[in-house]
User: What shape does this take?
Amino acid sequence: VIDPETSPKILVATVTGKCRNILLAERTALNTLSRASGVATASNRAATIKKDNSWHGYIAGTRKTTPGFRIVEKYSMIVGGVATHRLDLSQMVMLKDNHIWSAGNITEAVRLARSAAGFSMKIEVCLDLST
Assistant: This one.
């Protein structure tokens, strides 16, 4: 057992079973832990920057997730200290530049989204201000 007080390493799992079965699952388990750790570390870096700069907004993972890894990556964001934004497309309407362009303006895009989604669905407008 590794003592976290004297070592930077932390025990994350204890595995028991037949050697063959452990070896068959080892690479998949290590890849999953590695991916989760990377997402949590990146999330924590962003959360630390937010805190160090006394920013009161939200840091949220808004990008697409790796196919089949949504729950792992969203949980890793929570562990890292940021918001998950939404778990799937059904949780919120997100209007982007192309939606606004096709509707003519933000007001009309929101009106159309509200008529399609209903009064209780959250609608978020995402703009790219870099251009």
The helical segments are 19-52, 70-80, 97-103, 106-117. The chain has a mean pLDDT of 89.
